[in-house]
Amino acid sequence: MDRPGDKLRQAIGDEKPLQLPGVINAYAAILAQSAGFKALYLSGAGVANSKFALPDLGMTSINDVAEEVERITQACSLPLLVDADTGWGSFLNIHLSFKRLACAGAAGAHIEDQQDSKRCGHRPGKHLISTTEMVGRIKAAVDGRTYDSFLVMARTDAYAVEGLKPALERTLAYQSAGADAIFVEALTSLDEYQYFTKHLSIPVLANMTEFSQTPLFTKEQLAKIGISMILYPQSAFRAMSSAALKVYQAIRQEGTQQAVVGLMQSRQDLYHYLNYEKYEQELDAYLQLVEQTHDNN
Q1: C-alpha pair distances (Å), 231 with each of 37, 101, 175
Q2: pLDDT tens-digit series, residues 48-70
Q3: What is the DSSP string of 117-177?
Q4: Which position among 12, 52, 69, 160 has the lowest Cβ density within 10 Å, counted as fewest Cβ atoms?
Q5: Any idea what DSSP says for residue 263?
Q6: CA-closest candidate to residue 265, choices 239, 289, 228, 284
Q7: Would you state the pLDDT for residue 293?
Q8: Mean predicted confidence (pLDDT) in 159-171
Q9: What are the residues whose beta carbons fall under 8 Å from the beta carbon of 81, sequence distance 6 or more?
Q10: What is the pLDDT of residues 145-164, one digit of tens each?
Q11: Mean per-residue pLDDT of the chain
Q12: Using CA atoms, how far apart are residues 93 and 89, in angstroms rounded to an integer?
């Protein structure tokens, strides 16, 4: 049977570029799968924001992320790429973290070259570790994975801090260190992305996060310049949050939810995606068995 990493690598080869929608929980994963996506993404910011109401400042732990990975991968068969932030500690911690993510069911994870006191990739004030230290992080991540096809992706935030050429030099070193793919954060043009795809021999990911430093390029535009993966890390969560706020405000201000029912998923659709009737039938079968056993006694 194919491991999750094999499925992710196959998806990268089959869909050019592969679209990776962010999912914040198992139910969101089911919805994304129903829309036809071939792989999914769990954002570190998504875990911090949705589970703990915290900003994306490296305040969550490997346990917080791994628990969500387990829930998602148990509910959905699509391969899941995971945000491992800076790896949650020393090289030994990184080794254990990537082992934990692989064991939890992830198909791959990316680790970045910011300092442990990290920032959102589209915020000012980012500070980087040295290329040498990041190479150590990558090697620890590669050594930590429990099987070879688990995808280790290296993310660099160097463009905003050091510029285009130093960022490329870093990614070339990360490629040589054993990274399976590269994530270049906060680029601002298609030409900049193409600069990386031309010089690197491993897949490159483009992050199309909203309200950011990067314009929202289309799949077709990114395909033409050799991008292998496109990330939409918080798109659905932002939409969910906006709709939820509108519903809360309407109920509070108008005393009824009638005006915002159109924003809601119907009970019928919810039951459809949860496969409610299947579980109900299984429950009825168990109850019938108990009744029959009781009658026989």
Answers
A1: 12, 19, 20
A2: 999 999 999 999 999 999 999 99
A3: S---TTSS---BPPHHHHHHHHHHHHHH-SSTTSEEEEEE-HHHHH-HHHHHHHHHHHHHT
A4: 52
A5: G
A6: 239
A7: 82
A8: 97
A9: 8, 20, 39, 40, 41, 42, 106, 107, 108, 109, 110, 151, 153
A10: 999 999 999 999 999 999 99
A11: 96
A12: 5
Q: What is the dihedral of CA 96, 101, 102, 104, to 10 degrees?
A: 120
Cα–Cα distances in angstroms (integers) from residue 228 to residues 16, 34, 291, in the given order: 6, 22, 56
Identity of the amino acid at 266: S
Q: How far apart are CA 151 and CA 141, in angstroms?
A: 10
Q: What span, in angstroms and rounded, lies between the C-alpha atoms of 282 and 267?
A: 20
Give pLDDT, residue 1: 57
Three-state SS at 61: coil
* CA 244 to chain CA centroid, nearest Å: 22
Three-state secondary structure string covering 1-41: CCCHHHHHHHHHHHCCCEEEEECCCHHHHHHHHHCCCCCEE
- Output the six-digit token pair for 126: 């980012």
**pLDDT value at position 180?**
98
Please give the positions annotated as active site.
41, 56, 83, 85, 110, 112, 120, 155, 185, 207
Q: CA 47 to CA 52: how far, in whole Å?
A: 7
